[in-house]
Amino acid sequence: MYSSNRNVILTDTIISDESEKQGVFKGIREGKVTITAVTSENIEGRAELTILPPELVSIEVSPENLSVHVGHVQQFTARGTYSDGQRREVTDLVDWSSSDKTVPIISNMTGSKGLGISPPAGSSMIYATDPGTGVRGSTSLSVTTTKLVSILIQPENPTVFLGKSKHFSAVGLFSNGNKKNISSGLAWISSNPSVAKIDETDDATIEVASKSVGRVSIIALDPVSKITGKTSMNIVSPSLVSIAITPEQVSLSAGRGVSFTATGTFNNGQTKEMTEKLIWSSSDLRVAKINGVLW
Question: Against a cut of 0.85, is the pTM above it?
Answer without folding.
Answer: no
